Amino acid sequence: MRPWRKLLVVTLTILSLAGCQAMTGKTAGQNVDDATLTSSVKTKLAADKLSSLTRVDVDTNNGTVYLNGVVESPDQRARAQELASQVNGVNKVVNNLQVQKK
User: Fold this and answer.
1) pLDDT of residue 25
2) Given this structure, which CATH class describes domain 28-99?
3) 3 state SS of 75
4) How confident is the model at residue 2, as a pLDDT?
5) How many angstroms separate the CA atoms of 12 and 17, rounded?
6) What's the pLDDT at 50?
7) What is the phi-psi region of residue 90: left when phi exceeds 0, alpha when psi lies from -120 to 50, beta otherwise?
8) What is the DSSP letter of 66?
9) pLDDT of residue 33
Protein backbone atom coordinates (compact mmCIF):
# COMPACT_ATOMS: atom_id res chain seq x y z
CA MET A 1 0.00 0.00 0.00
CA ARG A 2 1.31 3.44 -0.84
CA PRO A 3 2.29 5.68 2.07
CA TRP A 4 -0.40 8.27 1.30
CA ARG A 5 -3.06 5.55 1.31
CA LYS A 6 -1.93 4.35 4.72
CA LEU A 7 -2.14 7.91 5.99
CA LEU A 8 -5.63 8.26 4.53
CA VAL A 9 -6.81 5.03 6.16
CA VAL A 10 -5.38 6.04 9.55
CA THR A 11 -6.90 9.52 9.30
CA LEU A 12 -10.34 8.19 8.38
CA THR A 13 -10.18 5.66 11.22
CA ILE A 14 -9.32 8.35 13.75
CA LEU A 15 -12.09 10.62 12.48
CA SER A 16 -14.67 7.85 12.65
CA LEU A 17 -13.65 6.97 16.22
CA ALA A 18 -13.86 10.63 17.21
CA GLY A 19 -17.36 10.70 15.75
CA CYS A 20 -18.35 7.71 17.87
CA GLN A 21 -17.14 9.49 20.97
CA ALA A 22 -19.17 12.57 20.08
CA MET A 23 -22.32 10.46 19.66
CA THR A 24 -22.16 8.93 23.14
CA GLY A 25 -20.57 11.90 24.86
CA LYS A 26 -18.21 9.50 26.63
CA THR A 27 -14.54 8.87 26.12
CA ALA A 28 -13.16 5.39 25.60
CA GLY A 29 -11.82 5.52 29.16
CA GLN A 30 -15.25 6.31 30.56
CA ASN A 31 -16.74 3.37 28.65
CA VAL A 32 -14.10 1.06 30.11
CA ASP A 33 -14.65 2.45 33.63
CA ASP A 34 -18.40 1.91 33.37
CA ALA A 35 -17.91 -1.63 32.06
CA THR A 36 -15.51 -2.37 34.92
CA LEU A 37 -17.98 -1.04 37.49
CA THR A 38 -20.80 -3.09 35.97
CA SER A 39 -18.67 -6.22 36.12
CA SER A 40 -17.58 -5.54 39.70
CA VAL A 41 -21.16 -4.98 40.89
CA LYS A 42 -22.38 -8.15 39.12
CA THR A 43 -19.56 -10.15 40.73
CA LYS A 44 -20.38 -8.77 44.18
CA LEU A 45 -24.09 -9.56 43.77
CA ALA A 46 -23.37 -13.10 42.55
CA ALA A 47 -20.96 -13.79 45.42
CA ASP A 48 -23.39 -12.68 48.13
CA LYS A 49 -24.26 -15.58 50.44
CA LEU A 50 -27.21 -13.87 52.14
CA SER A 51 -29.40 -13.27 49.09
CA SER A 52 -30.09 -14.82 45.72
CA LEU A 53 -29.62 -11.84 43.42
CA THR A 54 -29.28 -13.65 40.11
CA ARG A 55 -32.21 -11.85 38.47
CA VAL A 56 -30.70 -8.39 38.89
CA ASP A 57 -29.58 -6.56 35.76
CA VAL A 58 -26.79 -4.02 36.23
CA ASP A 59 -26.04 -1.06 33.97
CA THR A 60 -23.61 1.79 34.60
CA ASN A 61 -23.42 5.28 33.13
CA ASN A 62 -20.78 7.77 34.27
CA GLY A 63 -20.34 6.01 37.61
CA THR A 64 -24.06 5.74 38.34
CA VAL A 65 -25.17 2.13 38.71
CA TYR A 66 -28.71 1.20 37.69
CA LEU A 67 -30.22 -1.95 39.23
CA ASN A 68 -33.15 -3.41 37.28
CA GLY A 69 -35.04 -6.66 37.53
CA VAL A 70 -36.97 -8.67 40.08
CA VAL A 71 -36.17 -9.73 43.64
CA GLU A 72 -38.21 -11.78 46.11
CA SER A 73 -38.32 -9.40 49.08
CA PRO A 74 -37.75 -5.82 50.20
CA ASP A 75 -34.69 -7.10 52.10
CA GLN A 76 -33.15 -8.42 48.86
CA ARG A 77 -33.88 -5.09 47.18
CA ALA A 78 -32.08 -3.23 49.97
CA ARG A 79 -29.22 -5.76 50.02
CA ALA A 80 -28.59 -5.33 46.29
CA GLN A 81 -28.38 -1.56 46.70
CA GLU A 82 -26.08 -1.90 49.70
CA LEU A 83 -23.71 -4.24 47.84
CA ALA A 84 -23.64 -2.07 44.72
CA SER A 85 -22.84 1.03 46.74
CA GLN A 86 -19.86 -0.75 48.35
CA VAL A 87 -18.05 -1.13 45.02
CA ASN A 88 -15.15 1.30 44.74
CA GLY A 89 -15.85 3.94 42.07
CA VAL A 90 -19.64 3.83 42.26
CA ASN A 91 -20.93 7.40 42.63
CA LYS A 92 -24.63 6.65 42.96
CA VAL A 93 -27.02 3.68 42.85
CA VAL A 94 -30.44 3.94 41.22
CA ASN A 95 -32.51 1.03 42.51
CA ASN A 96 -35.29 0.13 40.06
CA LEU A 97 -35.71 -3.40 41.44
CA GLN A 98 -39.25 -4.72 41.73
CA VAL A 99 -40.31 -7.01 44.58
CA GLN A 100 -42.20 -10.05 43.35
CA LYS A 101 -42.85 -12.91 45.73
CA LYS A 102 -42.61 -16.47 44.46
Assistant:
1) 59
2) alpha beta
3) helix
4) 62
5) 9
6) 80
7) beta
8) E
9) 87
List C-alpha distances in Å: 36 to 54, 84, 100. Answer: 19, 13, 29
Nearest CA to 44 out of 7, 93, 3, 11 is that of 93
Using DSSP's 3-state secondary structure scheme, residue 5 falls into: helix
Greater confidence (18 vs 78) lies with 78
Q: What is the tens place of the pLDDT at every residue in 1-58?
A: 566 676 667 677 777 766 555 455 556 555 558 999 999 999 999 998 888 888 899 9
The amino acid occupying position 47 is: A
Q: How far apart are CA 53 and CA 50, in angstroms?
A: 9
Q: Distance (Å, rounded) from C-alpha 52 to C-alpha 94?
A: 19
Alpha helices in 48-98 (DSSP H): 74-85
| Cβ(48)–Cβ(76) below 8 Å | no
Instruction: Give me the helix-helix angle, 28-47 and 74-85, nearest 10°.
Output: 130
* Cα–Cα distance measured from residue 41 to residue 97, given in angstroms and rounded to the nearest whole number: 15
Give, in order, the Cα–Cα distances in Å from 65 to each of 7, 8, 40, 44, 68: 40, 40, 11, 13, 10
